[in-house]
Amino acid sequence: MADLEASPGNTTDVGDFVKDEEEELDLEEGYEDTIIGYPMYAGARVEPWHRYDTEDNQNVLYPIRLGEVLNERYLVEHKLGFGGGSTVWMAFDLQDKRDVALKVMALGKWGDNETRIQDEIIKTVQDTSRLFIYTATFFLPRDDKNYHRVLVFPMRGPSICTLSLKRTSMASRMSAARQLLETVASLHKSGIIHRDLDARNCMWGMAPIDGLSRSAKYELLGRPLKQTIPFVDLWKEGELVSPVKVPEDLRTDKFYLCDFGLAKKISDLPTQRGYPPMHYCSPDRLHKQEPSFACDMWSYMAIFSMLYLTFPPFPTFLEGGVQWKGLYTHPGGLDSWFDQSQSPDPDNDLAAKIAYFRPDTDLVERQHVQSIMSKVFVYHPEKRPTATELLRDPSFRAIMDRYGC
Ligand SMILES: Nc1ncnc2c1ncn2[C@@H]1O[C@H](COP(=O)(O)OP(=O)(O)OP(=O)(O)O)[C@@H](O)[C@H]1O
């Protein structure tokens, strides 16, 4: 990794503009990663252009170009990702000579909540070493006198996805499961609910590449493919840029939790709207119940099942419930899980799924995993174990022991 050409020395090469319509579509269009017919993750490589349009948009994004220096300090070199409330850029900190992640918040309240909760975490959570905690913050002004908040983080990545999990050892995957549960337990101990535990917010660590030239970084992480933001009459130039692809050999085994945009103190009132993606969202949240620590536990188990089975979160429900009938939050959504007359499909139940996705395991291991999952995937939030209880659960411990974690 000892390429000493200083990163900012190269001022010309800041990625490739799309050459034709095919590349443009490749950049903008959604893709779907599927496994035996189950959608794993659907999404676009870049944020939709209309999120830069101020019309009817209270959460407008800040336009950025590769090669720009933000706050007279951060040279933007690549894209790391985007979410509902931000774009995230890889930048070279010209002062400290290291790579950082810049989370450039959209206008609106999300950025304020994330900073407020992060400050709360810094004050109250004992071990923050596996949480994405900002190291600095600054503001970027718009032409209309509004300001975008920017949070500076150490660079991490990549987040978990089916394909890379299949190539990852069980020891690393189960170590990630244990680390994440400990992280959730320490957040809960401080009275904080994350509310958005999903695979995109769980990331491996990444070996530093600060010493490399930009071209060497592009060689490792992929060259940015970019397009000037189309259709919007922008007050400042900006680009839609494809994100980095972190090679597996740069990944470390440390497992992090990010994105506190929806997080809240259990005592906070009222709760702002927002849900994790459907596969990770507990039935109580989908049925307008107030968020609780137990919602995080459901989402945690969905991530555990990703890590263990490399399969998306369990899409069906195990028991009936009464009080949520008719309260479904998503228009057109089904209350079919509630139908007590439905009988379970034995080929499709938990045990069958575990056996299908992990034919390499023995019966004892499968029974432990089934026991763990069925304790958490229950309708009634008050019946789910807490993070601390699950860490002590004999089946959870047996699985961790088996994989040396
Ligand atoms: N420190 C980091 N290092 C590397 N990549 C990061 C970092 N922080 C964020 N990312 C990437 O940017 C993406 C968006 O970040 P994040 O989830 O924090 O944004 P958000 O706008 O709060 O999203 P959401 O819609 O989930 O609330 C992440 O999924 C991840 O791919």
From TrEMBL:
InterPro entries: Kinase-like_dom_sf, Prot_kinase_dom, Protein_kinase_ATP_BS. One of its GO terms (molecular function) is ATP binding. CDD domains: PKc. Keywords: ATP-binding, Nucleotide-binding. Residues 74-396 form the Protein kinase domain. Coiled coil: none annotated. ATP binds at residue 103. Gene3D superfamilies: Phosphorylase Kinase, domain 1, Transferase(Phosphotransferase) domain 1. This is Protein kinase domain-containing protein.
